[in-house]
Design a protein that fits this description.
The longest helix is centred in the middle third of the chain and has 25 residues, at about 185-210. The protein is globular, with a radius of gyration of 22 Å. It is mostly helical. The protein is built from 17 helices and eight strands. A hairpin with an 8-residue loop joins strand 4 and strand 5 (about 305). The chain has a two-stranded parallel sheet with strand order 1-3. It has a two-stranded antiparallel sheet with strand order 2-6. The chain binds protoporphyrin IX containing FE. Protoporphyrin IX containing FE (HEM) binds next to helix 2 and helix 10.
Length: about 525
């Protein structure tokens, strides 16, 4: 096996989603706490070879499929998670892994042994290095964020704006001028980033109105961050891992107390000094979102549906301006409490199930997303995890005290009635996978165990994947001395921002963003 440090990375393309500075060298020493580390330091890296991982990645990529008409149920959809959470998940990943230190600083430290910034839920992907250092992201008042051109298509959002972009000459793509370039990777995450800019502006205006004077930038930023952190813990996390796991890691939620009385229960992720990102999270468990990507999306009631990527026509691929009639209607992505009809062009689109199948467009990523081979996202994930020396899924499960899933139940393919009968077993692809599954595959296969023969049964992450994701998210927030958990554990979102049920979820945050 290649050692983690010796292996060549799959891709080191700059500024793209997935670039992991220093993750190639995630030391096993129990003393090391750089930017990337390990949760299960004593477990050896699983042994594979590139050929069998390539074969598994191919088997995990679905065949091309004509889009299901909107008037018909699509069995690959997950009734438990709506499509917006996929891209909110991608946005959160970028927030955690973005480092606003200059690339020059980083080039001087290719292995990230110096931790310029620790991973925090601080929206530096939105704020960059702040109004003094990056004034071109801000209005002249140094308080409001700059927005881009108006967008149409959603009559419910007359103030819709895209991201600010440069105006290059000729046919050059108009790049987004934002804190983290990766948040323009596709048209959906791009509009989520634009909505976050608007939420910041809304917060500035709201505080000014409430207090009768403009807030300081720091005050507005802190309130934006705390409301976002609240949504990550109270909405995103339970949606992805289920309330049982959230309550086990955050008993203060279950008991309605504060973390001062009921501290987080972190059994496997225990950063001693400052937060770091374990590779079990970044190279495996948190890549669950790749299997939730749909092949096609409706952005609003009027524009045609578009594939996420296409090699032959228009798509939602990003890193440049897109047609202005694609203004997103978030009611088609999140539950705003006024559930539209179940089928047809005005319903909430569900995410695809977290299972061991990725949609076909992710088998041939555009050059703008992955400039080096392989273009298959499944193959990239599997090879990346192996080269980083990740332990097998079964080894991690056993270490966490869960019964590993037996070989006979580890299958490859879609979790739906039509396809389940044709799915191969993992060990049919290679006997080397016997009791030795790649961790990323295992996390998805574990979620797939919840498929009970009914296409409508909701699915979220299972015990291993769910616990890794929950512990890292909670652990990072608890390690951040600026987070609301540390600074003000009794913080509550503004009354005025909550839904009629008193909740403050991502839909409520976006509802506020639409005001700006
Ligand atoms: C259309 C949507 C997406 C595309 C095209 C995409 C593409 C990619 C690519 C090309 C990589 C680098 C692979 C490698 O070479 O190792 C990557 C890494 C990664 N992706 Fe995605 N991704 C998408 C959505 C998501 C979502 C929804 C999530 C989670 C909810 C996610 C989480 C990650 C993580 C954790 C990494 C590891 C590196 C990092 O932290 O940035 N991705 N993705």
């Amino acid at each position: 096996m290649l050692t983690a440090a010796a292996a060549a990375p799959v891709s080191r393309s700059s500024g793209r989603h997935g670039e992991v500075r220093g993750a190639r060298l995630a030391p096993r020493s129990s003393l090391f706490e750089g930017r990337f580390g390990r949760m299960f330091r004593t477990l050896p890296g699983a042994e594979f070879d590139e050929a069998i991982l390539t074969a598994l990645g191919a088997a995990m990529t679905a065949d091309p499929d004509p889009p299901t008409p909107e008037t018909q149920a699509d069995p690959e959809e997950n009734t438990g998670i709506s499509a917006g959470y996929t891209y909110f998940g991608q946005f959160i990943d970028h927030d955690l892994t973005f480092d606003p230190a200059s690339s020059l600083q980083r080039e001087n430290d290719p292995d990230a042994l110096v931790d310029y910034r620790t991973p925090r839920f601080d929206l530096d992907s939105v704020y960059g290095r702040g109004p003094s250092d990056q004034p071109y992201l801000y209005r002249d008042d140094g308080l409001h964020m700059l927005l881009g051109d108006p967008l149409t298509g959603n009559a419910g959002d007359p103030k819709a704006r895209g991201l600010p972009r440069n105006r290059p000459e000729g046919a050059e793509p108009a790049r987004a001028l934002i804190g983290d370039p990766r948040n323009d990777e596709n048209v959906i995450v791009s509009q989520l980033q634009a909505s976050m800019l608007r939420f910041h502006n809304r917060m500035v205006d709201y505080l000014a109105q409430k207090d009768g004077a403009s807030p300081s930038f720091d005050e507005a930023q802190r309130m934006v961050r705390w409301h976002y952190q609240w949504v990550v813990l109270h909405d995103f996390l339970p949606t992805i891992v289920g309330w049982d796991t959230v309550n086990a890691v955050l008993p203060s939620f279950a008991h309605h107390t504060s973390i001062l009385r009921d501290p987080p229960q972190l059994k496997f992720f225990k950063p001693q000094k400052e937060g770091f990102i374990p590779i079990e999270f970044s190279a495996a468990a948190y890549r669950f979102g790749h299997s939730m990507v749909r092949p096609i999306y409706r952005l609003n009631a009027t524009a045609d549906r578009l594939p996420i990527f296409s090699t032959s026509g228009p798509s939602l691929a990003g890193f440049g301006a897109f047609p202005s009639n694609l203004g997103i209607d978030w009611r088609l992505f999140f539950d705003f409490g006024n559930r539209p009809p179940k089928l047809g062009p005005t319903r909430i689109q569900p995410a695809y199930k977290p299972d061991t199948s990725l949609v076909n467009p992710l088998g041939s990523l555009p050059h703008s997303v992955a400039s080096d081979p392989p273009p298959s996202l499944a193959q990239r994930n599997l090879i990346r995890g192996w080269r980083m020396g990740l332990p097998s899924g079964q080894a991690v499960a056993a270490q966490m005290g869960f019964d590993p899933i037996p070989d006979g139940k580890l299958i490859v393919g879609k979790a739906d009635v039509e396809d389940a009968g044709d799915n191969k077993k993992l060990t049919d692809i290679s006997p080397l996978f016997s009791e030795n599954a790649p961790l990323w595959y295992y996390v998805l296969a574990e979620a797939q165990q919840q498929f009970d023969g009914n296409d409508a049964t909701p699915i979220h992450l299972g015990p291993v994947g769910g616990r890794i994701v929950a512990e890292v998210i909670v652990g990072l927030m608890a390690a951040d001395t600026h987070s609301y958990l540390r600074q003000n554990p009794n913080f509550q979102p503004f009354e005025d921002f909550r839904s009629s049920s008193g909740n403050f979820a991502i839909a409520d945050l976006l509802r506020q963003a639409l005001e700006a």
